[in-house]
Each structure stands twice: as C-alpha cells, then as structure tokens.
Amino acid sequence: MKVLTLSVVTKPGASLEESNKLGNLVETELLSIPEISGTARRTGRGELDEHSQTVNSAEVDATFKLKDRSREEFMADVRETIARIPGIAATVGQPLGHRIDHMLSGTRADIAIKLFGDDLNKMFIIGNQVKSAIVGIEGLVDVNVDQQVEIPQIQIKANRDMLAQYGITIEQFNEFVDIAFGSEKRADIYEGQSRFDLVLRLNSDYTETIEGIRSALIDTDNGKKVPLEQVADVVSISGPSSISRENVQRKIVIAANVAGRDLRSVVEEIQATVAETVELPEGYRIEYGGQFESEANASKTLMLTSVLAIFIIFLLLFQEFKSFKLAGIILLNLPLALIGGVFSIYFTSGVLTIPAIIGFITLFGIATRNGILLISNYQRLQSQGASLIETIIQGSSDRLNAILMTALTAALALIPLAIQGDLPGNEIQSPMAQVILGGLLTSTLLNIFIVPIVYSILNNRGIIKSKQV
C-alpha cells in the first residue's frame, strides 16, 4: 500500500465543528476514487501540541494501490476531486515530503512565494495577481494563496492624556486589558482523570458586549476605579483574521507544488513570469523559498564535493600505479557509469535531484574499483612476462567474476528500492537506487570492453609500461 498526505485548509475563523464537517466531506470524496482504500485525518491541534496547526486546517492520509491507471492519472484525479469541494485550499504530497516542506519553508508545498509588505489588503490583492499569473505554468499544481478574511474586532485604544491624569501607566493599562479580556491562567484543577485551567478574567457581563467593555472598571493610582471608556477609546472595527510575519515583516505566502517537471526550471519560469506581469508597489517585495532553495544550495555543495572526490580518487590512483596514464584509464569508468545513470534518470523521473547526485557519487567509487581490478591484474601478468594479448584475455577473465559479483551484490540490494519509489519513505532512496543501478549496468558491461581496448592501444604505442617485479 502507498500513502498520500493531503493538507486541507478552510477559511480562517472556521470553527472546529465546521472544519470537521469539511474534513468528513474530503474523506468521502477521496474514498470515491477506486484506488483509495482508506483514510485517516487529524483536524485542529491537540492540547499542548507543538505543531503550529490551527483549527481550520486538517491533514488527511489516504492509502491507495494503483490498478488500471498510471500514477500521473491517479494524482490528476485526486486533485480534480479535491478541487470540486468549495471553501477549502488543498495541497497533495507524501508523508516525508510534507514534513520536509514544513521544515524548509514553513509551508505545506514545494514552492513558497513570500510576499512582504505593510498593507494586508493590498498584499492579498497582489498575491492573487501572482497566482493568476503563474497558475498556467506547466507542471505547477496546488497553487494557493494564504486565505485572509475580515473578521469583526473590538479595538481598545489607550488615551495617554487621560491615563496620565488618573495616574495609570501604559504597562498597568496593558496588563489590565490582557487579564480582564484575554484571561490569565493561575493554576490547574484536577477532578479524577480530567484537568481544568483556573482562569482569572472579568465577568461575562463586561466581556461579551461593547457596552460592557466600556463600563469595565480599572484601578487608578489612588485606589479608586474608573470605567475603561474614561481612559480609552473602545471601537468596533473589522480586521484580518491572522497576520504572518518573517523577520518582523508582514508576509503572505503563495504556495504551489510541482508534478511531472523539475523544480528548478519551474521556479525559473515563475520568477520570469512574475517579473513580467506583476508590478510591485514601493515597499513590497517577493522572496522565493521552499525545496528548490535548499536543493540549489545542496547541488552546489555536492558538485564541489564530486569534483573533489574525483580529484582525490585520481591522486590515490597515481599513488598506487605511479602513472598518470594508468590512472586516466581507470577513470574512464566514470563516464561509462555516467551513461547508465543519465539514461536511468531520463527513463524514470526525468529530473536530476539531490538523491540522484548522491547516487552518482556512490557510483564513482564502485566503477573505479572495477577499473582497479582490471589494471592491477594486467600489470601483474605483464610483469610476469605474459604477452599483451595473453595479459588482456587472462587478466579480464580472472577478474570477471569479482567484477560481476560486486555489481550483482549492489544491484540485487537496490532493486527493491528502485522499483518501489511510490512507497512512503522511498522518495529519497528510490532516485539514488535507480541512478546506481543504471550506472552499474553500463559501467560493468562497457568496462569489460573499453578498458582492455584502451589499455592495449596505449601499450602498443609505448605510452604505458608494464610494472616490473
């Protein structure tokens, strides 16, 4: 069985009961898809839970097994089914990828377009402009803008002149408002297996209506009490349901996933499209975050590591054989291995990912070892007086079993990972295994023919010499 993780968010301010109803509807619709056999859901957040999930959001895990359709057709059906449910914004991913996205960008998607500014209403308008501009980009799915709604609020504005007249400091005023209307926990009360908070706040007569708030009594410096409306303006307004910040700046996130295309090219097209079609007012800016940002940094690091690894391998080979030519012949196995690795990527995902790059680095070590086995045996036989033809034929046949055993041992262990990339937890291991398998196939087959041919040509020309004992 395979698993999908869906993140479903309703309108801000929705109650837990309403979120639960929409969650049930989502599960019902998912179960109507033939491949999906079961669902599990968590709506809201548990008591004292550190997860930053709100009551208007839910996570749905859906187990499925592909039958008559491909994975691409199945995923398209899932997204189309979810899109028919009104009042929600949903993203579709896998359990491990979902957690990684949370850690990298704080969102539930591969790409997080972060819009920074001051006016939330203007930011929401610009965010929808960005969404409209990029929604048609090939490979981009689950495009959503942080949902914002205006909710009624009661605003209490301190009148500093009146506070000073009554001898009330701003700190005392803020503390009173915080405790009187926001409440403050003083202790825990236990009754059997149940636990309750002992909370201090004003009576509901003073908290449920604007008139009651205005008449709430606050202490002055001489021990007397005055109504709150004497020292503050209490007004009814509307305001945003939530405000997200990053580095002290307000932000709105336009989130999206990528399907059937590599992440970097999609982000580059998004950046070009947004730059051409969306004009940002002064004081507003856009940053791009998510998996692609981490992938770009990791790719640079791995590329440098790969070059360093090849250089160190070359130095070790020269130290062993005392010949740049022999070291170069052994390194011929690297492009032979690259051929299979590139073809495996082309015929599977078509995307060069971080796990695939790690697979290439692993492949270099195995391919180099096969070359060492051949060249060291050739040198040994020639030092014993064997002719070039005898050296190549006998040396290759002697090392054939060892080379095949090395390749088959690695291949048999990697086959389950390579063919089960859709299973939860295999998102990282499967691309790496596919690259290693493809590279092992070409490097093992071509190594048996290419390395002996190159060694024979260079030996006939006197470019390399046999090692004497």
Sequence-ordered SSE layout with sheet pairings:
Blueprint: E1 2-10, H1 16-31, E2 36-43, E3 57-64, H2 71-83, E4 88-93, H3 95-105, E5 111-117, H4 120-134, E6 140-145, E7 150-158, H5 160-165, H6 170-182, E8 184-191, E9 194-200, H7 210-215, E10 217-219, E11 225-227, E12 232-240, E13 244-246, E14 249-258, H8 263-277, E15 285-290, H9 291-321, H10 324-331, H11 333-347, H12 354-383, H13 388-419, H14 429-460
Molecular structure report:
- With 469 residues, the protein is of the alpha+beta class.
- 52% of the residues lie in helices and 22% in strands.
- The protein has 14 helices and 15 strands.
- It starts with a strand and ends in a 9-residue tail after the last helix.
- The mean pLDDT is 83.
